[in-house]
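Run log // design_07
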């Protein structure tokens, strides 16, 4: 019986390795990559790799007609009588004879335009033919680096030795095999049965089908911004078309090759070629380039997208069989290249799917997906590896084996754990890599800041962290310290945090100690306040002393609903200015640290008091989708729906009864993309305090103002750019609105000369309404995505404010790179 099962397994293994394989070249002997190879009248196909080799899996011996399809070359059909495996079939393809058809000259109509109009008129019908299907999916992603330096900012770039002497080599290689169920426009169910990352046997590739849906039958294709399809309804507003010629495919279809040229260089458009089938007007193939600046990704030089479609004479459907996405990018003199290969096969087209086929779980990864051996991959991989890729797997797997060993990890730790005198300033970490724990000293090199209460102040700290890489959880605790030189006081806060469960995103955290706190924690950053104070003698940061103990817990209760609970007991004490130091002498004096009495330097904002506070927050991501991984759950926000959060807060056990209160707060955030006309975003807040007539100013609702004319965020959806920081703080009811529309180049790209800026027009509206005060509002208009070359981290806005009539205006300079320094 044991021999019987051995023979049975051997038979299955032979079936799994039933292959027609070989090499594809042109007539000069040049290897042809990404050739579409499939069995005639089926959707069983594969592709050649970068060296022209292919492997076509078949289920059993027999007679087959194999089709070889490659843009620019004649499609070739070869009859194969495959009885022994592997069956070797090398193929030479001849260049396509593209002919210009005889055309009756009509000065009013470009022949290519007529074909594009027919394709546009027929795209709904052609799209619906592939609207619902099951299919096998394979993806491979590879990134290479060229000319990488030995070190960047003193840190060694290639610690693993994977690059050659010129700084060139593969830095990432991964593969995915899955079964997908799809319904247009965006319903997906994908089960990943195999996932492989070079040098990481515990990782799972993100090369999923959800990121490969580039459908040119739609008006727009998402590449960071919506790119206009060459057969979009409004395509003639963005493209010029030229007839390059026609050829006859293996099914006697006439294929039209159309050159696609942008009308304006700076708009979100493609350029290259689209191939349209005569009569049906279906897409036969696309070969299109995307310039990085056109999709507002300046780091990318150019991206090339190709798609090949296979025809089945039984179903009469042209279905996408092969897609490649290649790019060149560069930064700081380092060149990156990448390529993603996506192969679709074994289509099963459906009229309808059963109810509940599609759920919020759009991708699931099998528990054993990253444990498949080479035998499985050799049988299932539709696109064979190149020698370079094979060597990369072997090399990095060997490196991983060495780097995971206790002997190696201990030897690296012995080297890295040596303490040096400069570590007293720069920081020091002691690691036990084998047991996944570390001790860290932060040093004192964090950017020092200045405020009028503390003067110059420095931060440092100590921490311990223990990780569980198998469950993707961790525990950390430590202490953060802050010393103010003018105040001559050291403050310290101890903290504890643990990630309990990566499936429900559960966290438990606690902290206790003494700190200086802003009345509005997000009012002004330390860097911006430092510059405002030292150079302009404007001390906008208002602080109080807080000694506290806090505990909190967060967990996703059901998909899309997360609950967060917090409890805190604190003692609050007013603080006063301790320095009048300034770098540039100015005649004016510093204002006081009391935000309500700028000239009263000795008047406390409140009396010292104690108070307990507890809150619970529910956050709902409507329509939230997710990816299920063996090591956790990855939530994906559904852009069709808003995110709503609601908080109930209660203050109690105060040293004085008047400090106690109840409050409710709500917030709604919504982003929507409007075709190629940009992105509209809204942030709406509202709230109400109860029994709060005499509460501490620290507990008021504060609004994010700005008196510095400097912006730091990517979008101004949580800030008023001309509002003084604390003029509208309230302990009553409030409504706050921020709305912004970024045209993503839709207008600026069409304006001569200004389109050279490659910038985005942004308009916004901001408003506050509180009791007994006239509503405050701001109107903004600005340019985003400004900068030089590949560094575009600047923004400029003109702001006009109103409150019972015109209030004032100003210019805001957005310096988004400041976020890196915080």
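design_07 sequence
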């Amino acid at each position: 019986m044991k021999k019987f099962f051995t023979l049975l397994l051997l038979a299955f293994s032979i079936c799994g390795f039933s292959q027609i394989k070989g090499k594809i070249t042109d007539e000069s002997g040049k290897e042809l990559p990404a050739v579409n190879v499939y069995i005639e009248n089926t959707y069983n196909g594969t592709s050649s790799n970068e060296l022209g080799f292919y492997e076509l899996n078949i289920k059993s011996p027999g007679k087959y007609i194999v089709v070889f399809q490659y843009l620019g070359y004649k499609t070739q059909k070869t009859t194969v009588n495959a009885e022994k495996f592997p069956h070797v079939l090398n193929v030479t393809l001849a260049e396509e004879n593209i002919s210009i058809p005889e055309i009756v000259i009509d000065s009013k109509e470009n022949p290519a335009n007529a074909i594009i109009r027919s394709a546009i008129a027929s795209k709904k019908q052609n799209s619906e033919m592939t609207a619902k299907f099951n299919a096998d999916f394979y993806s491979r992603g590879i990134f290479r680096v060229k000319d990488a330096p030995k070190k960047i900012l003193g840190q060694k770039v290639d610690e693993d030795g994977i690059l050659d002497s010129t700084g060139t080599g593969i830095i990432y290689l991964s593969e995915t095999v899955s079964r997908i169920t799809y319904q247009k426009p965006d319903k997906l169910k994908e089960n990943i049965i195999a996932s492989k990352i070079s040098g990481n046997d515990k990782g799972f590739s993100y090369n999923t089908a959800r990121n490969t849906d580039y459908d040119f039958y739609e008006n727009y294709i998402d590449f960071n911004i919506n790119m206009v399809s060459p057969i979009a309804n409004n395509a003639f507003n963005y493209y010029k078309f030229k007839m390059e010629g026609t050829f006859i495919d293996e099914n006697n279809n006439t294929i039209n090759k159309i050159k696609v040229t942008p009308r304006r260089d700076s708009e979100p458009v493609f350029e290259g070629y689209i191939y349209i089938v005569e009569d049906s007007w279906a897409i036969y193939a696309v070969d299109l380039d995307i310039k990085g600046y056109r999709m507002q990704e300046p780091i990318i030089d150019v991206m090339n997208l190709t798609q090949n479609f296979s025809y089945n004479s039984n179903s009469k459907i042209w279905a996408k069989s092969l897609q490649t996405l290649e790019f060149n990018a560069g930064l700081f003199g380092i060149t990156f290249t990448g390529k993603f290969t996506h192969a679709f096969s074994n289509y099963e087209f459906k009229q309808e799917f059963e109810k509940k086929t599609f759920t919020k779980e759009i991708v699931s990864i099998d528990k054993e997906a990253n444990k498949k051996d080479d035998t499985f991959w050799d049988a299932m991989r539709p696109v064979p590896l190149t020698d370079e890729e094979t060597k990369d797997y072997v090399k990095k797997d060997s490196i991983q084996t060495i780097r995971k060993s206790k002997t190696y990890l201990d030897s690296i730790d012995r080297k890295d754990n040596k303490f040096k005198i400069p570590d007293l300033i720069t920081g020091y970490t002691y690691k036990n890599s084998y047991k996944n724990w570390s001790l860290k000293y932060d040093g004192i090199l964090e950017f020092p800041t200045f405020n009028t209460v503390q003067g110059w102040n420095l931060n440092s700290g100590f921490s311990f962290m223990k990780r569980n890489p198998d469950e993707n959880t961790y525990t950390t605790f430590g202490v953060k310290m802050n010393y103010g030189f003018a105040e001559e006081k050291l403050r310290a806060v101890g903290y504890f945090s643990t990630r309990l469960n990566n499936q429900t995103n559960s966290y438990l955290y606690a902290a206790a100690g003494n700190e200086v706190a802003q009345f509005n924690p997000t009012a002004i950053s330390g860097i911006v306040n430092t510059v405002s104070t030292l150079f302009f003698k404007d001390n906008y940061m208002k602080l109080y002393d807080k000694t506290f103990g806090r505990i909190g817990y967060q967990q996703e209760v059901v998909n899309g609903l997360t609950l967060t609970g917090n409890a805190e007991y604190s003692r609050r004490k007013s603080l006063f200015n301790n320095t009048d130091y300034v770098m540039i002498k100015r005649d004016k004096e510093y204002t006081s640290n009391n935000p309500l009495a700028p000239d009263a330097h000795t008047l406390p904002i409140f009396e010292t008091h104690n108070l307990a506070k507890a809150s619970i927050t529910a956050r709902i991501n409507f329509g939230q989708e997710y990816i299920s991984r063996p090591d956790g759950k990855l939530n994906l926000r559904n852009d069709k729906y808003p995110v709503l959060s609601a908080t109930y807060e209660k203050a109690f056990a105060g040293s004085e009864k008047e400090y106690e209160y109840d409050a409710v707060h709500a917030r709604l955030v919504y982003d929507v993309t409007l075709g190629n006309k940009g992105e509209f975003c809204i942030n709406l807040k509202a709230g109400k305090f109860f029994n709060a007539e005499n509460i501490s100013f620290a507990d008021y609702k504060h609004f994010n103002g700005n008196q510095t004319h400097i912006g730091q965020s990517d979008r101004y959806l949580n800030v008023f750019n001309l509002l003084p920081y604390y003029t509208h703080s309230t302990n009553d009811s409030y409504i706050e609105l921020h709305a912004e529309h970024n045209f993503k180049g839709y207008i600026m790209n069409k304006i001569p000369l200004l389109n050279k800026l490659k910038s985005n027009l942004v308009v916004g509206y901001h408003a506050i309404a509180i009791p007994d005060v006239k509503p405050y509002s701001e109107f903004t208009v600005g340019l985003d995505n400004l900068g030089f070359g590949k560094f575009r981290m600047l923004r400029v806005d003109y702001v006009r404010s109103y409150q019972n009539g015109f209030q004032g205006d100003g210019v805001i300079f957005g310096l988004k790179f400041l976020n890196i320094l915080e």
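Residues 111-129 form the longest helix (19 residues).
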